[in-house]
Structures are given as C-alpha cells and as structure tokens.
Design brief:
Blueprint (H helix, E strand, L loop, with lengths): L5 H13 L5 E3 L10 H14 L8 E3 L8 H15 L5 H14 L20
Parallel strand pairs: 1-2
Amino acid sequence: MACVSEQDYKIAERIEKEGKACVIVVNKWDTIPNKNNESTTHYEQDVREKLRVLDWAPIVYCSAINGNSVEKIISAASLVEKERSRRLGTSILNQVVREAVAFKAPPRTRGGKKEAVFITQHR
C-alpha cells in the first residue's frame, strides 16, 4: 500500500545509471478498492512522478496471489528485451549526432573545435 518506497527509488536510479532494461511491476493490485480507469491513471502518474528516471519503462499491474496479469509481465519483459537488443544503423546514428551538434555545438577545447566524424553502436 506504500506505493513507491525509498528502496524502489534507489533501485530505479541504479537501473538508469547502469543502462539496464526494466519493467515496473505494481503488485497487490487486487488490494486496491474500487479500481477504475481514473484510479489507474492516478496511480500511474504517482509512480511516474516518483520514478522519473524510469519514465520509459512500461508499468504492469498484477496480483501475485491470484496470478492476475502474470502473462502481461512476460509480454512486457519480452517487448523491453526486443527494444533493448534492437540495433540502429550507423547512418541513423550519424544523422542523430549531426542534428544534435547542429542544435547545440560542443564546447571548444584549447586545441580548437573537435568534430565527431563517425559513430556506430557497440553490441
């Protein structure tokens, strides 16, 4: 009933810092009385606000006692793994870097302007 604890927040920070994949699972959803779309939206906003560093992570509501939505957890984890292992082409990455540099150029160094000429994704 505590929603997001300090420990949850510390775990979320570590997940973000280390660049790990994540699915936020809200357990004991069966104990929330009078659930509806509005209460679900309110609960999600609360979780998103408290775990801002994981704003990209899907949220799944479940009840481990009666097994509700366990298949949704597996499905969300599968989707997250698929996205995490997606490989972007070098041309796309180079275009993103060019656009970022055009928007805000990196600071100059003592040796003058440095320029990224090529970027690729590490496996």
